[in-house]
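Much of what follows relies on a compact textual record of a protein's fold. Each token is a code from a learned vocabulary of local backbone shapes. The record below shows the convention in full.
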Amino acid sequence: MIRGWMLPLLLAAAGALGAAGQFADGRTVAGAVVLLVLVGFAVVNSPLVFPASVGAEEARRRSAADGRPVIYWRPGCRYCRRLRFALGRDARRAHWVDIWRDPAAAAAVRAIADGNETVPTVVLPDGRARVNPEVDWVRERL
């Protein structure tokens, strides 16, 4: 849980420090811009932009029941973020599993990706999997 929030917290802290320096020099507009930009980056890199994560076992159970794919991801991953934003509202139709919160999920990804924790990894209900798939491929399966 804490690992997923490290980058956003560091970005927010850097924004606060940078803005404080600008404010101390009397440059309020520059300080506000620095703060807004870095807090914006913090939000985009946080677990908040992804649908609520479930555990690997729960995601597999739900996928078998409703036919939706399971997407393994981790906070701070630019490829996961790219997939998430490209899917838009359709992203909520998949089951998202944070591999940093669930060791079983990380093990599942390693089994698929030749021992690496490469994400995003998408697993379909029939067991077929793709590592870092194209957005259109994922959208077709949603």
About this structure: The longest strand covers residues 70-73. The mean pLDDT is 87. The CA atoms of residues 56 and 125 lie 13 Å apart.
